[in-house]
Amino acid sequence: MVIQWYGEGCFKISAGPLTIMTDPNEKESGLAKPKFKADIIVKTKLNPPAPNKGIERDESEETHEILGPGDYEVKGVPITGWALKNSSSNGTLKTVYKLRFDDMSLGFLGEISNFADPSIIEEIGDIDILFVPAGNGGLLETKEAAKIVRQIEPRLLIPTHFKVKDLKRKADGPEAFLKELGMSAQAQDKLTIKRKDLSEKMQVALLKI
Questions:
Q1: Bond prior to 48 in cis (omega within 30° of 0)
Q2: Alpha-carbon span 133 to 171, nearest angstrom
Q3: Distance separating alpha carbons of residues 117 and 179, to the nearest angstrom
Q4: For residue range 108-143, what is the model confidence (pLDDT) as tens digits?
Q5: For 45-103, where are the E strands, in sequence order?
Q6: Domains, the chain, ordered by start
C-alpha cells in the first residue's frame, strides 16, 4: 500500500489496481485539488447532508463515491460509516469510516470536532492505520485527539488536518499533538507499507504535501 497526502483529509491510497481518495480538497481550503483518478472516493463531510445517497457513480461507473453512514462493499473493499451526531449540524453531516484494504483496516476520523459517543469506538474495533486530525483549528483539541488515539490503539497513526502552506483555515502544526502522545516523526513524501511492517507498538507516520 502506498499512501500520499494532499493536505487536510485528502489522501491517495493505492494498492494493486485500486486507488482510493479521501475527502478531496475544496477550492475554499486554498489547497490544490488532486488530479489523480480514483476508483473509490470516501467523503467524511457532506454539505448539505445526503444520508440516503449511499454510493454515487459517475457516468462511466469507474468511480464510486461513498457518501454518509452505512455498510458498503465497492470493488471488493468493505466500508462502514458511522454518523457523528455531535460533530454534525443542520447543514453538515460528518461520518467516520472504517475500511479494509490490502489486508489492513483503515480508520478515518475526518473533520471531527466532538467524539462523545463511546459506542462508535467499540464498533470500530481493531484498526491498523488511523487517520486523525492533529492541528486543532476548530477540530479536535490536542488532548481530546490524543485520548481517542489511546482508546482506539491503532498500530500506525497518520496525523491529518494540520498547518501546511496555502491552507486558509487556521491550524497548528502537529508538534503539540505528537508531544501529547510522547511521539515524534520526520515528515516524508509518501508512505509505502505492508501488513508485515506493522508493529504491535503504535508508530506514527508524518506525511508532507
A1: yes
A2: 10
A3: 25
A4: 999 888 776 778 888 999 999 999 999 999 899 999
A5: 45-46, 54-57, 64-67, 70-74, 77-83, 93-101
A6: 2-204 (3.60.15.10)
